[in-house]
Amino acid sequence: MKKIINPWKDVKGYNCFGCAPSNPAGVKMEFYEDGDEIISRWKPRPEYQGWLDTLHGGIQAVLLDEICAWVILRKLQTTGVTSKMETRYMKSVNTTDDYIELRAKIQEKKRNIILIEAYLYNQQGELCTKALCTYFTFSHEKARNEMNFLSCDLEE
Question: What are the φ/ψ torsions at residue 47 (nearest 5 degrees)?
């Protein structure tokens, strides 16, 4: 498993809620590549709770959507937008857990429409939430020219 380098971390104005390391309100996710999967371990914090000691469902959706975006970034070396997200909450996630683990991978490709499956597991390894994201991807040319895309490399 290798860490994915965030290519925007030093770009002026970069303030992504999901992955910008300097956004004080953000969730500051980091990502790793393991075979065909992208993985993130994340520490739940009490400021992201819905009910007492329970991770807000909207934050869970953010985490799942963000890891899906990083699947596109790393595996296809382009970018795009989420056009649809189906989320299934199956078990509550405790904000007192030391970490949760997210895993995502491409399920299906249809030209520039990509289906990505994503899973959120609690510290005990139990599946809590799953999502299927439909992603509309940009051509490599558009990503480079219009989106200032920077390729995602792995740390040595």
Answer: -70, -10
Distance of CA 30 to the CA centre of its chain: 9
Query: Read out DSSP for 30-75?
Result: --EEETTEEEEEE---GGGBSSTTBB-HHHHHHHHHHHHHHHHHHH
| Distance from chain centroid for Cα 139 | 21
Question: What gap in Å lies between CA 79 and CA 84, rounded to an integer?
Answer: 15
pLDDT by residue, tens only, the chain of 156 residues = 999 999 888 888 899 999 999 999 999 999 999 999 999 999 999 999 999 999 999 999 999 999 999 999 999 989 889 999 999 999 999 999 999 999 999 999 999 999 999 999 999 999 999 999 999 998 877 777 766 666 667 775
